[in-house]
Design goal:
9 helices; alpha+beta; 4-stranded parallel β-sheet; single chain; 297 residues
Length: 297
């Protein structure tokens, strides 16, 4: 496989780590008979715009950045007809890199580039949030969801993954519960929840992990985790232990699969989409886009 490559670089990802690897990457791409054209993002939303406006003229889109960059690139491609979307090559340079963990993409940029050049397109479903915004691996509300986008960039660059842990500890005393009605394919429930997530991944923040045997990234379904409000500290401790260990069978945890889910709150609730601020909403409808995008692995 060879042809024209659109190379989208997020200069701020991974402490500007692209500077130490870009020459080697370009050499690898050219040696494999790819003709790369480099685009650098300047701010939030740039990768989405660049992909939507230009990807149709390329045979492959490679993004060099974090999961947020991959999410933006995927969102841009989702504005194109399914048959016109070029496959995505992902070279992770971010802090959490949940999608890279899910797909077993190497941390080394050179190794990741080698894998994508040798790889084949893998179908990856994309979520549609409130009929207007796309996400690749998670849409979430409640406890800890503000951590990923509230953590200052300089702190992320200095402490890496530990930055998320520090911000999470600071937010422990602010945990709220939200009364909501949840509808999914074939079911409905009502309760008070401290956390909810609609996911298509096996790793969230490198801490919460789903068993890969229970997650199909291209089945047209998202995994849904809802955590009910614990009655006391003992229940809270049990919930935290279960989530970290990947055990979602506890009485305070609902684990569902659905192509569509609707969550109706009685007050505006903040959401995060792929680690970025998704705004406040009272009525949230999430659909699974199948087909979504193709990622080279």
């Amino acid at each position: 496989m060879s042809g024209k490559m659109m190379l989208i670089i997020n200069p701020n990802a991974g402490r500007g780590g692209y500077k130490t690897c870009i020459a080697e990457l370009l050499e690898k791409f050219c040696a494999a008979d790819w003709l790369p054209t480099v685009y650098c993002t300047r701010g939030v939303g740039d990768a989405t715009r660049l992909a939507a406006e230009n990807a149709g003229g390329y045979d492959m889109v490679v993004c060099l950045g974090g999961d947020g960059t991959l999410s933006e690139v995927s969102s841009g491609l989702m504005h194109m007809p399914a048959q016109a979307r070029p496959p995505i090559g992902y070279i992770p340079l971010g802090t959490a890199n949940d999608v890279a963990r899910t797909l077993s993409i190497p941390k080394s940029p050179a190794a990741a580039a080698k894998k994508l050049l040798e790889g084949k397109p893998f179908a990856y479903d994309v979520g549609l949030f409130c009929s207007r915004s796309y996400f690749v691996y998670i849409a979430a509300f409640g406890a800890f969801t503000e951590v990923s986008y509230a953590t200052p960039s300089d702190v992320k660059h200095t402490w890496g993954h530990m930055a998320y842990m520090l911000e999470g500890i600071k937010s422990l005393g602010k945990i709220k519960s939200y009364e909501a009605i949840v509808e999914w394919d074939g079911g409905v429930t009502r309760g008070e929840f401290i956390f909810g997530a609609v996911m298509n991944c096996t790793s969230v923040g490198g801490v919460v992990r789903l068993d890969s045997s229970n997650v199909d990234l291209s089945d047209g379904l998202n995994e849904i985790v809802l955590i009910k409000r614990p009655r006391d500290l003992i229940e809270m401790n049990n919930v935290i232990t279960q989530v970290i260990s990947g055990n979602f069978s506890g009485s305070n945890i609902l684990f569902l699969r659905s192509a569509e889910v609707r969550i109706m709150f009685f007050q505006p609730v903040s959401w995060t989409l792929d680690g970025e601020n998704g705004g406040q909403h009272r009525d949230v409808l999430i659909n699974t886009c199948h087909p979504g995008v193709e990622i080279l692995i």
